[in-house]
Amino acid sequence: MANIDEKLQKIARDLLESKEVSLIIGYTGGSHPQRMRPVFITKPEDVGRLSFNRHSVQDLAVFLKKQEVKKFGRIGIVVKGCDEKALNVLMQEYQVSRENIKIIGVECNGVIRQDLADKGETDLSENTVYDKCLMCGEHTPILHDYLIECADPQISMSGDIKPFAKIEELDSMSSEEKDVFWEKEFDKCIKCYACRQACPLCYCSRCIVEKNVPQWIDTNFGKIGNAQWNLIRAYHLAGRCIGCGECERACPVNIPLMLINGKMARSIHDLFGYKSGLDVDAKPVFGVFSESDFNDFIK
Amino acid sequence: MSRIGVFVCWCGSNIAGTVDVEKVRDEASKIPGVVSAVDYKYMCSDPGQNSLRNVIKEKNLTGVVLAACSPHMHENTFRKAAIKEGLNPYFVEIANIREQVSWVHDDKERATSKAVDLMTMMVEKVKRDRSIDDVKVPLHKKTLVIGGGISGIQAALDIANGGVEVLLVEKEPSIGGRMIQLDETFPTLDCSSCIMTPKMVEVNQHPNIKLYTYSEVTDVSGYIGNFKIKIKKKARSVVEKDCTGCGNCWNVCPMHKNVKSEFNVNLSERTAIYVPFPQAVPLIPALDRAVCLHFKKGGKCVKCYEACGPKCIDFNLQDEIVEETVGAIVAATGYDLIENSLYGEYGYGKYKDVVSGLQFERLLSASGPTEGLVKRPSDGATPKTIVFIQCVGSRDPEKGVPYCSKVCCMYTAKHAKLFAHKVHGSQSYVFYIDIRATSKGYEEFVRGTMEQDGAIYLRGRVSRIYEDEGKLIIKGADTLSGNQVEIAADMVVLATGVIPKKGSDKVAQMLGISYDKYGFYTESHPKLRPTESSTAGIFLAGMAQGPRDIPESVVSGSAAASKILGLFSKDEYEVEGTIASVNEATCVACFYCRRVCAYNAISGKDIKDRSGKLIKVVANVNPGLCVGCGACVNACFSKTIDVKGFMDDQIYAEIRSLSV
Ligand SMILES: Cc1cc2nc3c(=O)[nH]c(=O)nc-3n(C[C@H](O)[C@H](O)[C@H](O)COP(=O)(O)OP(=O)(O)OC[C@H]3O[C@@H](n4cnc5c(N)ncnc54)[C@H](O)[C@@H]3O)c2cc1C
Ligand code: SF4
Ligand code: SF4
Ligand code: SF4
Ligand code: SF4
Description:
The structure holds 2 protein chains of 2 kinds.
Chain A: H1 2-17, E1 23-29, E2 36-41, H2 67-70, E3 75-79, H3 81-92, E4 101-106, H4 114-117, H5 131-134, E5 146-148, H6 165-171, H7 175-187, H8 194-198, H9 223-237, H10 246-250, H11 257-272
Chain B: E1 4-9, H1 13-16, H2 21-30, E2 34-40, H3 46-58, E3 63-68, H4 71-84, E4 92-96, H5 98-102, H6 108-127, E5 135-138, E6 142-146, H7 150-161, E7 165-169, E8 184-185, E9 190-191, H8 192-205, E10 209-212, E11 215-223, E12 226-233, H9 248-252, E13 273-274, E14 286-287, H10 293-296, H11 303-307, E15 320-326, E16 328-331, E17 335-337, E18 354-356, H12 357-364, E19 385-392, H13 408-422, E20 427-432, H14 442-451, E21 456-459, E22 462-468, E23 471-478, E24 483-489, E25 491-496, E26 498-500, H15 504-511, E27 538-540, H16 550-567, E28 572-575, E29 580-582, H17 592-596, E30 602-608, E31 614-621, H18 631-635, E32 641-643, H19 648-659
Parallel strand pairs in B: 1-2, 1-3, 3-4, 6-7, 6-16, 7-10, 16-27, 18-25, 19-20, 19-25, 20-21
Antiparallel strand pairs in B: 5-28, 8-9, 11-12, 12-15, 13-14, 17-26, 22-23, 23-24, 29-32, 30-31
The structure holds flavin-adenine dinucleotide and iron/sulfur cluster (SF4) (4 copies).
């Protein structure tokens, strides 16, 4: 562990001292030993605060959309494999340019679910990590300027646990049953928009929910408005969401947003053979015009 | 406050027969903001339009809804009427209650209720209309014509004669295209080169035409009125301005074997330095570096250089790129023939005396390899019997193309006729599926071939051709008599179908125009805009659009020319103002809009503060390119881009008007 932190700190110090970047976004110890929190380092003498471990759950890419952060110009950022996919999408969508970003990648074999960690969980196992970690195909960040090896062993899978099993369960339900399920979930939504704020890919300066001429999304609590918000949010992330799970983690009322995101990702892959965040040079699946499109409505 | 007038048209009984127009009128008058609702027998008639104008004036209307026929029919009529009363034309909306209601429904009550809905939607829309100005694009009055076949030549001449400068780009060393390869032409049998060469010479001498032969267009950007183009002049190895066309060079070139003449469709050879045919325009040779000994053998051979009086051969000439700006483009890239090798059973390529239609043209032509005497390729003997096979590749979805190549019935009749004229006592047989001879004088022409020139027409397909004792044995079916036939012939001519010129898909992609699955350029509208491409400012002509004969190619060349002269008769081009517009305050420059725009209308724009510091980048719509299709609107997550006249709040209001 200490080894990782030292490496991190050295990279950060070099980057800041050489003025290659003016800000490093990373993790530091939080309110208790099983919590990490984001930290912003601008001075070489502060790099000692940087740390990384199996509790580094946040996707720090979310900060890149903030004006306060953008101001720094060239930025170094600590990312896990899953988080790095967000960088790729941001680059595909011209929100981040590769020249302005130093990617400090850390190999990761899973992070412990925060709800368990808060109760003292420190063991890394198939029962303690997020579902996304069980399905992770990018333990090593795809793009990186620096790479720090993993300190944790690979998780062994017993085969008893099926990540996102609920998606299949929902798939097998009738439309009416699904309606009932989601209506109950969306009913909890308090329109705090934490899901949006936590998402690295929700970077619009004016979200559609804030558009009021016309008001497409009903901002009151209510069946229609709640469904509109949650569905449009999901739809705007279809083919873009990289599955970091930050939205679901941020939701104060525990709406299982990853079920929607996961289902969308599967459909996008089935229909278009596309997975988001894997290739910075790929055309985003909803950003393609093709003369040979199989639909003939736009020719 | 909105002051809306609603005008419900009967269209005689066209609408009134199925829709209760009075009910629609009464419902209209109940909508808040509607200050006048009337119905009338024919709104498009002069009195109808006058009543529209009167109401606009008297009631001081801020918007007009016509519940009438499709906007395609009369939107313009009504807009013009509104303009006369000082109303911005985009405050005129049409609820289509004819094509979308009365013509497609029977139940009067339900049709009426749908008509009321459509009318109500338009009232809600017109309330939210903003005044829109049409966009004016300045025109660079110069034209690029790509392809120097008959269609391109015709377009170039007509445009140039109209006083507009033309750049004619032809990739071969000479203009003339396929037509100059032909012998005599149906239906009047005038000799192709006799009618073609004067036009070619005229092109060359025309003060308004700049000819680029042995050249290709390599890059096109921009939009109507302002296309930036790059022309690559391939290294000809001959200094054009000094060459006199004397021919000394090609007469001494030792490479006169092994290189097949493209012009004679492989029936003869040409030299490495060559003009494709004696009447070439310009009469300046090109040196084919791929076969020239100088280039292949490290500079040894300099025979042509030595023979050249003005010493204009320069082995070191390089490709040259010329940049130009033009306001309009004609794509006239013509055609090729389908690969005959697809039809192994006909023995093309295996038996020398099985030739294509175009090769037969060369065998008939006085400038061809046999100087116009019909001789068969294998031994030079005069054939007595020729079998012609039509529809080789055409109308054959399996192996060839499903469409009809249109010219083969006619040129086969011509071939059989000319063969009869040139070789007395000869006999031709024509295998056909149908005879398509539909233009003026065509049917008579084919009849003449059958009746006066004695060609025997057999309806059916040929199954096999093989050689036996110096003869070609043709086995086929005569489906009219039901007999199998076997003919021993001296030659076989395949009426090979036509396909778009190789590389025309690349040209289309470069120009940003659409093409069909075969590669033929598609028209903006097949009937009503047959000469316009899908992109404003780019016009089409000739076989590049689809099979057609010379008269049709000429017509299309002239049509493109007249469109361009019309366009250039003004100094600016007006584009409908209903194009995309970006809310720069909310744009986050994700450029999904740019990705989905099929018209390349979107680019990035830097927003800077007063000191010149970049604040942000936003999407920017080029009014010359945007057609208002709205694809971008769907792609934009933040609802930042909208098409004027179809703004978000308008669409939303239309939908809301239905649910209440
Ligand atoms: C065997 C045969 C016999 C025929 N006989 C008759 C007849 O008797 N009467 C009749 O009316 N019709 C006849 N036709 C039809 C006639 O040939 C065509 O209608 C006519 O030639 C079409 O002219 P075009 O200019 O459209 O195309 P083309 O003649 O093909 O000209 C196109 C030109 O564009 C050039 N080009 C192509 N691509 C590029 C590029 N990328 N850049 C620059 N230049 C380019 C080509 O080199 C060519 O010079 C016959 C056709 C065939 C096959
Ligand atoms: S939608 Fe949720 S899971 Fe997907 S990228 Fe945004 S925060 Fe991550
Ligand atoms: S975070 Fe949860 S409660 Fe808040 S808006 Fe999103 S879904 Fe609703
Ligand atoms: S899609 Fe919308 S937000 Fe993105 S660049 Fe275009 S206009 Fe701007
Ligand atoms: S409306 Fe159509 S043509 Fe215009 S910018 Fe949008 S996508 Fe392009």
